[in-house]
Amino acid sequence: xxxxxxxxxxxxxxxxxDWNSSSLKNHMPLSQRAKIFLPFSALTGYDEALQKTLELxxxxxxE
Length: 63
Prior knowledge:
- The structure is a single chain.
- The protein is an all-alpha fold.
- It has three helices and no strands.
- It has helices spanning 5-15, 30-36, 46-62.
- The chain is elongated and about 70 Å long.
- The N and C termini lie far apart (65 Å).
């Protein structure tokens, strides 16, 4: 890595940190961690818009 005095000044406490080992004793299982984000929907209203589009397409096919 290229030495940069500004980076070393601001990030000296974490540059040499061993990121492979965590200081946390109890890790949350991945299955539990995934449940945290289940209620989150990045695209609000997407499911409703998709359903409406499907209904319109089906109606056009049946005409």
